[in-house]
Amino acid sequence: MENHRLARAVLPMSVRCDTCQGHMLKGAKFNIRKEEVAGEAHLGIQIWRFYFRCSHCLAVFTLRSDPKNSDFAVEAGATRQKNLELEPLGAALDEVQVAAAAQV
Length: 104
Ligand SMILES: [Zn+2]
Description:
- By secondary structure, the chain is mainly beta.
- It has one domain.
- It contains one helix and eight strands; from the N terminus they run ββββββββα.
- The protein has a five-stranded antiparallel β-sheet with strand order 1-4-5-6-7.
- β4 (29-42) and β5 (45-53) form a beta hairpin.
- The longest helix is centred in the C-terminal third of the chain and has 13 residues, at 91-103.
- The chain is globular.
- The relative contact order is 0.25.
- It binds zinc ion (ZN).
- Zinc ion binds next to loops.
């Protein structure tokens, strides 16, 4: 789709994959696709949808920007987690990210 764009992004919150229950931590880097959410804006600010792939099982989960709250919201495929920001990133994460990046 023309309004899809590839981007490098940092996960803005810790989430748990609904498919494999794997955790992904805030600050982890992902290659993502993003698109404008058609017909939706808040006070003229475009809302974006971001397609991430689980770093464990590669299932897609989506976040969207939430300009009303200056935040992001999980839209589908994952569950937001709190209080996981201080855990260290697993070494295995990078390997799976490379695999995911190769598919883009
Ligand atoms: Zn997963």
